[in-house]
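Run log // design_07
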């Protein structure tokens, strides 16, 4: 074989491997770095002697912006009906009052990927993390 034919053979041999590896890396990157989505929520503060203080929150699909998802439709079947957001005892009553007052836009922030269950990351009031709001009050 001539030198040019050997080079073409080597490139032809390794090109599919490089394409396959780059596709795998691309998919792994997108699985490991899910997008963040914010969904409107309503809820209340139940108390449990066993579980402690948490906010029981439900996603308000009617007020949530579904355009943040790739297909521009809310994937309601991928999310749970209720989410528990655990908070320190000292903050529970204040957060409950904020939610019940109706003065704030309450949102839940999720790490979302089509292939995995959404993971609750933060509770937001008017776009700010609740912990940041507590420090400002």
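design_07 sequence
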């Amino acid at each position: 074989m001539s030198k040019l034919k050997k080079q073409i053979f080597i490139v032809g041999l390794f090109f599919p491997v490089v394409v396959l590896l780059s596709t795998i890396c691309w998919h792994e990157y997108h699985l490991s770095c899910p997008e963040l989505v914010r969904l409107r929520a309503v809820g209340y503060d139940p108390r449990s002697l066993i579980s402690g203080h948490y906010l029981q929150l439900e996603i308000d699909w009617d007020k949530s912006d579904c355009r943040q998802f790739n297909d521009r439709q809310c994937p309601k079947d991928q999310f749970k009906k209720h989410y528990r957001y655990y908070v320190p005892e000292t903050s529970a009553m204040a957060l409950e009052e904020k939610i019940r007052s109706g003065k704030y836009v309450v949102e839940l922030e999720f790490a979302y990927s089509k292939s995995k269950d959404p993971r609750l990351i933060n509770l937001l009031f008017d776009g700010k993390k609740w912990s940041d709001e507590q420090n400002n009050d």
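The mean pLDDT is 83.
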